[in-house]
Amino acid sequence: MPTPVRPEFRPDPALDREAMTALQREIADAARFRDDLPFDPASVGRNPTVTDADSWAPAAEAPLVAGVDQAFLDDRAVSAVVVTRGDTVVERTYAVSELSIPYVPGLLAFREGGPIVDALATLESDPDLYVLDGSGRVHFRQAGIATHVGVTFDAPAVGVAKSLLCGTPEADADGRPAGWRTPIRADDGVDAPAGTVIGHAYQSRQYDSSPVINPLYVSPGHRVSAGTTVDLVAALCDGYKLPEPTRLADAYAEEAKAEIAPGGEDGDNAEDEPGDGDSVEDEPGDGNG
User: Fold this and answer.
1) What's the pLDDT at 7?
2) Most CB within 10 Å of its CB: which of 42, 159, 270, 280?
3) Which residues fall within 8 angstroms of residue 188, CB to CB, at 6 or more apart?
4) What distance, in Å, lies between the first and last C-alpha atoms of the chain?
């Protein structure tokens, strides 16, 4: 079971807005946006390429990757975690938590981060990498929900958002082919030196004709660089729009939600459908900060 190493960084919805933003700046200072991984990045994915027994992680010992996503029921969050090793699902779990504050742009972690920590507390395994539906360094204060979780558990974490919260892509991302990527650089809206690469726009999947699929916006949360983050996400997508662990977590969150409240309200749109990922920027649960 993962244990919070820095519990003081757990998102506290009781804080006022000034205290929340101050805590985010502390978290950003504590985050390490460089590679400090307990595994070889080439061993990640449904079909790991590392097979040499002398390398960091042979294919048979690929790292445990936790995909984290949520569904919502009125004032409750259903937070699901699916842990994979290569193409094998090792564990699934979820938690249902109350949501005590409304959504505020840039402060998503204080609404939904606590429920995610609740779900992680029910895990039996201890993941090597967390992949979250939301931002990491691509955030006004470089402290999106992936940064909160990564720093709190002192574990490698990456954020995969469906729309761009802040920063400026180096090139226009519209209509790009599968596999295309471009850096996202800090601008005046980000607490980072101008021009710093804080993430990437990555086109994980595309059709030859309409409808056009929008890119993902991926960024490091903790203990991983921006370049390695997009490589990890590319390996985990393996032909899908979303990384497989978060795609499975999204489906499991909806499955759990249906069990909790049969015939209840509709949740977020199912992932990996044509045109998916085109939700309004900066809305609750759309994969932003």
Assistant:
1) 94
2) 159
3) 194
4) 25
172 has which bridge partners? Answer: none
Secondary structure of 24-61 in the HEC alphabet? HHHHHHHCCCCCCCCCCHHHCCCCCCCCCCCCCCCHHH
**Length of the chain measured in residues:** 289
Q: Is 42 part of a structural domain of the chain? A: yes
Q: Is 84 among the domain residues?
A: yes
Strand residues in 203-258 grouped as ranges (E): 216-222
The boundaries of the domain holding residue 253 are 7-156+220-260
Task: Pick the closest to residue 62 from 48, 78, 79 (CA basis).
Answer: 48
Residue 72 in this model has a pLDDT that exceeds 50: yes
The set of residues, in sequence order, having a beta carbon less than 8 Å from that of 233 and lying 6+ positions away, is: 131, 158, 160, 202, 204, 216, 218, 243
Edge-to-edge strands, sheet with 168-169? 88-98, 76-85, 64-73, 129-132, 157-161, 216-222, 197-202, 181-185, 168-169
Using one digit for the tens of pLDDT, what is the confidence trace for 230-269? Answer: 999 999 998 889 999 999 999 999 999 999 987 655 444 3
The tokens for 156 are: 């490698």
CATH number at residue 91: 3.30.2170.10
Q: Cα separation of 78 and 151, whole Å? A: 22
Contact 166, 139 (CB under 8 A): yes
Output the pTM of the full model: 0.88
The pLDDT tens digits for 220-236 are: 999 999 999 999 999 99
In the chain, the number of structural domains is: 1
